[in-house]
Amino acid sequence: MIGITGASGSVYGVRLTEILLSMGYSVHLVISNAGWRVLKEELDWTASSREEMLDGHFGSLPGKLVYHSFSDIGASIASGSFRVKAMIIIPCSMGTLANIAGGISANLMTRAADVMIKEERKLVIVPRETPLHAIHLENMLKLAHMGVSIIPAMPAFYYRPQTLEDAVDFVVGKVLDILDIEHHLFERWGE
After folding, report:
1. Is residue 128 annotated as involved in ligand binding?
2. Residues 127, 140: Cα–Cα separation, whole Å
3. Binding residue per annotation — 188?
4. Looking at domain 2-178, what is its CATH homologous superfamily?
5. Which residues take part in binding FMN (predicted)?
6. Residue 94, annotated ligand binder?
7. Is 106 in contact with 140 (CB distance < 8 Å)?
8. How confident is the model at residue 106 (pLDDT cuts 50, 70, 90)?
């Protein structure tokens, strides 16, 4: 399950979705209203026909994409009885992170994250904000204490990325690492 919020860096969520679908995984996708706005601003995606846009971008990949409306609080992924391996919110805004840390389930994304925590399933948060203030850090620490994996969108440079796509793939690769999914998105130290 992937959530894309209104934080800058929507390319991270799109790239992770592409990779998982290309590997044949089923991906349940939730995009916040602000996430759609950022997709438009950063990647020129239009939000007027959301399902058509998603099908045009991801439809040729072998995996199965299931899109859930951000406001559909009754969707399958809102229930603890729905089996899912992991949820990744990439990028994750500080507002979404704060709602999850506070147990506020006001929309499908935060409800699904709440379910992942209560069912003790893998929840990965990829915050994308700078600079960070004490409340941001306290919310991340609170979630880390609950077993949530926090992977800030911080690319490395030891492998000498040549393009922006290389830097994006490093962050996406770190998410795949924590999910124990084999990949070759970046050169590992010592390889």
Report:
1. yes
2. 9
3. no
4. Flavin prenyltransferase-like (3.40.50.1950)
5. 6-8, 32, 93-96, 128
6. yes
7. no
8. very high
